[in-house]
Design goal:
By secondary structure, the chain is mainly β. It is 12% helix and 35% strand. It has a single domain, classed as 7 Propeller (Methylamine Dehydrogenase, Chain H). It contains five helices and 32 strands.
Length: 504
């Protein structure tokens, strides 16, 4: 997985769905309003014959007025022709739209977002994760609150931080409906409030490639959080004190809570990206993979943390991503730079993969295991394509094919994630600066979709399963919030985006 330059200063960037130009507004009229009014009320029997000079001046002024009116008419005709040729706004699609010009910006269409907020950060962040909370499941009311954690890629190693945040008073995106005069002014969902951000930081010595929070945190009270750093170290923190500080006024975080509770050094100085907590083992079971192809399993005993001395290993190619099975507590999958997706069993004494499948001719950057259907695995590739695999078809005798495959993106896939609450919805981020949402349940021969594609020519080469395109500069990681249906958190060059569309 590629990194972005940390030397670029962060500036607040506007999310996009619509492209506009600053020249779309017509220029102001050449004749001032005051001059027109004077012409209407001018005395025709005034002193216009006092001198020849005055006669010439009046006649020339009338000629100028005639020329101005004719010029204005021509200008209006030109503008109308330009509007027909180049619409004021167009839909921006990464696979077919031209790059933005120096005078063009991308603007989000608020009517397609239920919620959209941006959080600026001091440095770019390659990774983000959501902290589970005790505010309830299936939350659909506003203002919304959520907890997230991320880590920086600073220009100087000593300036890096692990940042934990509580984001509250996140209001619903307000779109005024002119036809709705009876809107309830007391509707809490439409309360226009200023968002609030509380944050706690932990100093780090290196860039963090990936950060992951234990999915059992809210159950156990231990907010176990692992970071895979550029130095090769895997640091495990307990962020429960930081979490408590957000909701307990006056609470002082102990100094010990700003230090890792365990450090995994088995990777030496080899950095990596693969990192995942087991969703089935609540005591804490972590897998970490590095760029030399080694995968280490770390688990907790009653007194300390233990990392297996023998790594899982198949090739020298980098382990780009790791995912525990959502159905079997000894099974996990990996994505590699050699184009393979491999399935492993921790009980194997040989520490070799049980099955290896060539998923792409390029790097397999990311994978995601479905929480609802535990035999489905999605993979995202360096050539911009991604697919979904039925693991029941994986065996040593045959070469399986993906049950779904898309090449809509034209740049490397940087993150892929099944919606934990809907097995058919997948979020995909790419280096083309977009996050796309897909609904695999949509049938290509659906009558309504077929009619839409006939009416709109620009839809003819867009897969019918594509639900939404969200623009975010240098987007690297995207995570679903399991307790707020449809809510996503994504990290990019302009900070964090917290958003929810009307599509999901």
């Amino acid at each position: 997985m590629s990194k972005r330059s940390a030397s670029d200063e962060l500036a607040q960037s506007v999310n996009s769905a619509v492209k506009t130009t600053k020249d779309s507004l017509p220029p102001t009229n050449a004749v001032e309003e005051g001059d027109v009014d004077m012409g209407e009320f001018e005395d025709p029997y005034g002193d216009e014959f006092e001198s020849d000079g005055e006669i010439i001046e009046v006649d020339s002024a009338n000629e100028d007025d005639d020329m101005d009116e004719e010029g204005k008419s021509k200008k209006i005709e030109e503008l109308e022709r330009d509007e027909e040729k180049e619409p004021e706004s167009t839909i921006y699609l990464p696979h077919k739209s031209k790059p933005l010009g120096p005078d063009e910006v991308l603007e989000a269409d608020p009517s397609v977002y239920e919620m959209l907020h941006n959080v600026n950060l001091p440095w770019p962040c390659l990774t983000v994760d959501v902290l589970p909370d005790n505010l309830g499941n299936e939350r659909r009311t506003y203002p919304a609150s959520l907890y997230v954690t991320t880590a920086t890629q600073a220009s100087r190693a000593k300036d890096n931080e692990l940042i934990t945040m509580k984001l509250s008073s996140l209001s619903k995106t307000l779109v005024k409906d002119e036809d709705d005069d009876d809107q309830d002014e007391d509707d809490d969902d439409n309360e226009d409030v200023d968002p609030i951000m509380d944050s706690e930081t932990i100093p780090l010595k290196h860039t963090t490639n990936r950060i992951r929070v234990s999915p059992h945190a809210s159950e156990t009270g231990e907010y176990l959080t692992a970071t895979m750093s550029e130095s090769g170290e895997v640091l495990i923190y307990d962020l429960s004190s930081q979490f408590k500080a957000f909701d307990t006024p006056g609470y002082m975080i102990p100094k010990s809570s700003k230090r890792p509770i365990h450090t995994i050094r088995n990777h030496g100085n080899v950095e990596g990206y693969g990192l995942d907590w087991s969703p089935l083992i609540n005591t804490g079971s972590l897998l970490s993979g590095d760029c030399s192809g080694r995968i280490y399993a770390t688990s907790r005993t009653s007194s300390n943390w233990v990392t297996d001395k023998t790594p899982f290993f198949a090739s020298d190619s980098s382990i780009e991503d790791i995912q525990w099975s959502t159905g079997e507590n000894t099974v996990f999958a990996t994505a590699g730079c050699d184009g393979y997706v491999r399935v492993w069993d921790t009980r194997s004494k040989k520490h070799k993969p049980a099955i290896s499948v060539a998923a792409s001719k390029t790097d397999v950057n990311v994978i995601s295991w479905s929480e609802k259907i535990n035999y489905l695995l999605a993979s995202g590739h360096d050539d911009g394509s991604w697919g979904v695999w039925d693991l029941r078809n994986f065996n040593a005798q045959t070469t399986p094919s993906p049950v779904a495959h898309y090449d809509f993106h034209k740049s490397a896939i940087t993150s892929i994630s099944f919606n934990p609450l809907d097995e058919s919805i997948i979020a995909v981020s790419s280096e083309d600066n977009t996050v796309t949402l897909w609904d695999l349940a949509v049938e290509a021969d659906d009558e309504e979709i077929t009619e839409q594609r006939k009416e709109l020519q620009e839809l003819h080469d867009i897969p019918p399963q594509l639900l939404f395109v969200h623009w975010q500069r240098d987007v690297k990681d995207v995570r679903w919030h399991k307790q707020i249906p449809g809510c996503l958190v994504s990290t990019g060059g302009d900070g964090l985006n917290i958003w929810k569309t009307i599509s999901v």
